[in-house]
Specification:
- The structure is a homodecamer.
- The first copy, chain A, starts with a strand and ends in a 10-residue tail after the last strand.
- Chain A has a single domain, classed as Dimeric alpha+beta barrel (Alpha-Beta Plaits, 2-Layer Sandwich), CATH 3.30.70.
- Chain A is an alpha+beta fold.
- Chains A and D meet through α2 of A and loops of D.
- Chains A, B, C, D, E, F, G, H, I, J: This is Muconolactone Delta-isomerase.
- Chains A, B, C, D, E, F, G, H, I, J: Pathway: Aromatic compound metabolism; beta-ketoadipate pathway; 5-oxo-4,5-dihydro-2-furylacetate from catechol: step 3/3.
- Chains A, B, C, D, E, F, G, H, I, J: InterPro entries: Dimeric_a/b-barrel, MLI_dom, Muconolactone_d_Isoase.
- Chains A, B, C, D, E, F, G, H, I, J: Its EC number is 5.3.3.4.
Chain lengths: ~100, ~100, ~100, ~100, ~100, ~100, ~100, ~100, ~100, ~100
């Protein structure tokens, strides 16, 4: 089942560069593992921002919550979730 | 080049059912043709709404404008556009 | 799977009283049938408004969309959806 | 009498992990006690967020205020309250 | 029990002057009867607007809904409700 | 002359409990003195919040400013002011 | 006593040009008479808009309401009111 | 002197296609004449919208108002104005 | 040329009382000097707030920027600017 | 390809004057180099603010992201991006 998730990162201005680098590295590994598992289906940067647009493919609401709340950057992000479903005009078989 | 587009349809309450059906049919044909050409890469319904989330793959800003402003439902939609680019943590080769 | 849905009704000021009564009666029958099926689990009026707060229990995002978009008042409502899941502090066995 | 309450937790970024864990544990015990008393009737997590949707069943506005302002996380939450009442289309006897 | 209610009137621009005068007269009689019963405790005009601030004193959420939804101007108003209770610094015995 | 004032308290998360208690005690004494003088006519807690709704009865805009800006919690509050006047449907002689 | 008032005119798109011209002429006469009386102290156009910024000098909230609600364009304007008083840094004797 | 102006066109849904075409043609001629005079220095379409971003080079606020309020589409546009001036980091001689 | 400027002061909660007093004194001297020069034409306090409404009379956008950005409180204010011009209904010769 | 970018600078109130001066100097050099390369086509100050309006001329969304995220002030700015294209009423050959 698909979910549309927008994440905007807001790091506290007094976080040290080392700590920020560390969190970002952990986040990257976490995101890439989920992509390889097929759960984080799309991940795009919004140009000109520190934000992304993502599409997750998970079992249900509970798994979405588990994944999102486990993100290393979770405490520092504004997150908006929209549940998705097949659009009646869609022609792609593999997009829902 | 990818663009993230959200469209929310707001038909005037006094539009006749016939006129609405006609526009929707034209919109569907238009959307499916663009999907087949590869320009309308993703099209999802936002569950519980008369809205969609789409990703377009076009040459440039001008082609995006040409396609969006040509939508039969264009006069009746609220539309938000975000330019996308590759996310540094993305692992998919075909997603940018 | 549970979804939290808020619906605010905005009937066009020039809709006739007969047409309004007709739609509301159809809406009521539709809502009661879905409650009896267990799909519309909770339905409350927000005091001092023409709005409700509801909880739906459906198979997935697609069924939510099917039910919501089938509401007779759908064209006349502002609707906000939030996917729900079990809260780690919940003690109720039958509430997720 | 029922009230719909949405709570979004915003912990200060410089709160220590120990202090956060301590508050959360107290909050959990407080929430579970109120659920057992029947005053905190529903408690759901909003998927993909650090927020909940709750329904309280209390005597009056004053008891709602007493309970909400007593939450250990109260100073760190954005809270929105809506008074609820029975919906004319509701079929459940025990839901108001 | 007290509720704070703000009402802003937005009459459709094409409502006839006769119809508007008729509704306003009915509204006035309705409001004055409720004030005499003690249920509409305060009613003030917000200076420079077609809006009021009111305080209702009713049994519960259900009675508030019954009264508000029965207002002749109800279909033409934006309404915001806040449940009130005694403030710990209040010195008035008759104000809660 | 009456003014409607909403105040929402936002204490800095790093204010010490002692300092907070001290300010709140001063605020309470100040608020009670003004109530006794008849200048702070109504003071209600908004249930489920750290906010109040108040009605002030003062000479003019200047006295309102003097009183509000003298509140011990003034630097820590979001404040919204609305000038009030008699509503044409009001039946109370002592409410304007 | 001074009040700051912003007015934005939103004429219904289907109002006839004759009717609009008639209202505007009445509004102009009304505004000029109030300026001559000294009650409408300042009246500026916000450049690039159909809006004005005004300062009224009236007895009290009630007179402000009487004047504003008597504006011929009152049903077609969004209006925001702010009560003003002397600024402690002001050097003008005649500006409060 | 430069001004940044954003215009979003919102034609009434019941305006006839002929009337719309007529206004747009007049608007185009008006806009092109002002560009040739050097007063409408930049005019861009915001991709995916019926909106533009413009920069005007006029004598003063009054001339800006005269030009904007004279736009044939003026009654059907949302308009936001920002006064501009030279940026201390600008290297262009002809851009202020 | 006139500009309407609203300024809302938001001092950081951890600024020392000495530092705050110092900035305010400098701000006051600066504001009074500009008023004496005729450039800061009006300065009013918004009653019940730490905000002002001002009207500046300066040469052009650049001088406005120079004055505003030179305010000692500039880093601690939310500022909104509107360019003004003569209103066609104004009767004052000296107010534009 | 053109992009419209608005940037509002919000420096943390506890950043030292030295650090702020350092970042601003780096930002200025960066901005001027990009202007000389023709990539930062326009850069204007919004009068009365610590904000700018800019137009970038870059290859694609990815280059825009590279440039914007490389700004020394990037962590301290609110940034809004709009993709631009040629307006059908534009008469300038070199403005798209």
């Amino acid at each position: 089942m698909l979910y549309h998730v927008e994440m905007t990162v807001k790091l506290p201005p007094d976080m040290s560069a080392e700590r920020a680098a560390e969190i970002k590295a952990t986040e990257k590994a976490y995101a890439q593992e989920l992509q390889r598992q097929g759960k984080w289906r799309h991940l795009w940067r919004v140009a000109g921002s520190y934000a992304n647009v993502s599409v997750f493919d998970v079992e249900d609401n509970a798994e979405l919550q588990e994944i999102i709340s486990g993100l290393p950057l979770f405490p520092y992000m504004e997150i908006r979730v929209k549940p998705l479903c097949r659009h009646p005009s869609s022609v792609r078989d593999d997009d829902s």
